[in-house]
Every structure is written in C-alpha cells, then in structure tokens.
Automatic annotation (TrEMBL):
Signal peptide (UniProt feature, chain positions): none
A Pfam family matched in the record: Abhydrolase_3
GO molecular function: hydrolase activity
Domain Alpha/beta hydrolase fold-3: 103-325
Disordered, as annotated region: 1-21
InterPro entries reported for this sequence: AB_hydrolase_3 (IPR013094), AB_hydrolase_fold (IPR029058), Carboxylest/Gibb_receptor (IPR050466)
Protein name, per record: Alpha/beta hydrolase fold-3 domain-containing protein
Length: 356
C-alpha cells in the first residue's frame, strides 16, 4: 500500500510539472552542449576542474575582430588591471555621427565560469551594440571559487572607475565618440546579480564624485538571486527547465559566497526588506523568463525595488528559459533587445544645448 501511495504521489507530481516550450533543434543542441560542459567542470566539493575548463574555454571562445561584421560591429580587447586579470572586450561601430551611450556588460556563468570571449556572450554583445546603438564594454572579472565574494563586485566597480578616470573607452578614436553620462549596466544570470551590486555600490560611494560617468539605468537580465527557501518556481521547474537546476544553483552559491555562508547572505538574498539600496540607485529594467526556475526570486527583487521607491520596469517573456536572449534563433531574443533599446532611449542623459 505504501508503495502504491508513493507511486500515485509521484504520478500526481509529474502531471503538475509544466511542459517545456517547443524549441528549435539548434537551440536544444546548444543547451545540451552548454549544460554538459558545466556539469563536466563543476566538482561536488565546490571547486572547478580548471584543466578541463581551460580546454572547453578554448573551444568555446571567439577572438576579437577589428573588422566590422555584417551589422557593422567590430571588437577589440584592452587591459584594465593585468595584476588581477581584469580586461574588457569592446564592441563598437566603425563610425558614429553623434556620441553613443555605453553599456558595461557583466557575463553570466554562476560566478565561476566563462569570460567575455565565450561565443554566446560575444554574440550577445555584438547584437546589443547593433540593436541599442551603443558601445558595449564586456568586463572580464575574477571567478569563484578562487576569488569569492566580493571579488566580482570589486572588479565590476573598478571597471567603471577605470572608464570614468579616462573619460571614455580606450581604443576608440574620434570617429566613435561616447557619452559616459549615458552609461548603462547589463548582465544576465550571475552577471545580473553583479549588475545590481555594482550599481548599488556605485550609487552609494562613487557617483557623486565621478568625473563623467553616470549610471543612467541597469538591466538585470534574469538575475541570479536566491535564498535558503526553495520557491514554487524552483520546485515546479526542477528537472524540467534547461540550464538552471537546484544542484547547479547550490554549487554556484557555495563557490561564490564566503565559506560557511548560507544562501540568505546579502549577496544572494536581495529579495525582501533587508535589501540595502542606495538613495541614488538607478532606474532598472528587470528581464524575466516565464520558464526560468529563478523567476520567483526575480519578481520579488523587482517588488523590493518598487517598495523602496525605485523606478523599475519588469519585462516578462512567457515560456522563455534561463539565458534565452543568447539565442538569436528565438523571436523573443530580438524582442528583448528592442525593449532594451526603448529603455535606453528614454533614460539617456539630456544632451546639452550648444552655446549660443
């Protein structure tokens, strides 16, 4: 009887599980390869097999290309701090007839994996540059567990300080002027978490004394937040949604947070009234996928911003999995870029009128 009851409960639970949205074969194959690579390098003890990761990194990485592609976007790398391995890849048009906004981008990877050179992030930043009409600066920050909290946040803020101190983007000449007064921060997953914390630190400690750089808005794209609690979306989509599951999420928090910390640490748990927000925290467009196990945390995050009086726009894309906007085969990946452009256009610094 106990066995029959257990089987019935399991069958009932299976019926309650939502069905994955239909995806093109090319997307399903890419997702399978990505998750296999992640699982291959993440060890149960919370460390990363860096030897194997190095092989995968070389296979998945794309070189910067100073020649404009079909959309007119070129790319190049520059070093910010060689001692810490902080560098950036810039995506820019060949020319521009007016100052362009700057998007500082922080890649995903659970705080422990990847770089701006990895193919999907390289492609996303190219598309961001073309779709938003912006110069994109994709930052390579230090990875966990070798460099735990707050290393990624420190590197993210230092990237803004670097740009501010130089009054522009190194490697760009007068043919591509930039408007650092219209600087936006963007990043997906762990990068979305970094976006929040870097923006908050910048607003609290650096914005008032900045020379030229003003954070005009932020894009936490399916940001990676969490807590000790298992939310309804995490439980409902466990074993069903691609990319994110409880085991991978727990690995990332174990690798990134201080040794012994729980998932209720302030780096992860920015989803209730304990969230400490700077007075000048910038306007936010929070991007959520309707098939992302983390969507409950992301909705709570947006709600916290609202309750604390911050300007926030929530853009939800039904049926979309974690990381969907990295796949141009999906129409939603184009739609989200269009929505981001509208946000940039409405939050740019007001141009100063020329002196009479």
């Amino acid at each position: 009887m106990a066995s029959d009851s257990s089987n019935q409960a399991g069958a009932a639970e299976a019926k309650l599980k939502p069905k994955p949205p239909p995806l093109p074969l090319s997307v399903r194959l890419q997702l399978a390869g990505l998750t296999a690579a992640i699982d291959a390098v993440e060890r149960r003890d919370g460390t990363v097999n860096r030897c194997l990761y190095g092989v995968i990194d070389r296979l998945l990485s794309a070189r910067a290309n100073p020649r404009p592609d079909a959309s007119g976007v070129r790319s190049f790398d520059f070093t910010m701090d060689a001692s810490r391995g902080i560098w950036a890849r810039v995506f820019a048009p060949a020319t521009a007839d007016r100052p362009l906004p700057v998007v500082v981008y922080y890649h995903g990877g659970g705080f422990a994996l990847f770089s701006p050179a990895i193919g999907p992030f390289n492609g996303v930043c190219r598309r961001l540059c073309a779709a938003l009409g912006a110069v994109v600066v994709s930052v390579n920050y230090r990875l966990a567990p070798e460099h735990r909290w707050p290393a990624a946040y420190d590197d993210g803020v230092d990237a803004l300080r670097f740009l501010d101190s130089r009054g522009g983007v190194p490697g760009l000449d007068d043919d591509v002027p930039v408007d650092l007064g219209s600087c936006f921060l963007a990043g997906e997953s762990a990068g979305g978490n970094i976006v929040h914390h870097v923006a908050n630190r910048w607003a609290a400690a650096w914005q008032a004394s900045a020379l030229t750089l003003r954070v005009a808005g932020v894009f936490p794209v399916q940001p990676y937040f969490g807590g000790v609690e298992r939310t309804p979306s995490e439980l409902a989509l466990e074993g069903v949604a691609p990319v994110v599951n409880l085991r991978r999420s727990d690995f990332s928090w174990t690798a990134f947070l201080p040794v012994g910390a729980t998932r209720d640490h302030p780096a992860a748990h920015v989803t209730d009234d304990n969230a400490d927000l700077a007075e000048q925290f910038p306007p936010a467009m929070v991007i959520i996928g309707g098939f992302d196990p983390l969507m409950d945390w992301q909705r709570r995050y947006a709600d916290v911003l609202r309750r604390k009086g911050k300007e926030v726009l929530v853009a939800e894309y039904p049926g979309m999995f974690h990381g969907f906007y990295g796949f141009p085969e999906l129409p939603e990946a184009t739609k989200v870029l269009q929505d981001m452009k509208a946000f940039v256009d409405s939050h740019r610094a007001t141009p100063k009128l020329a002196d009479a």
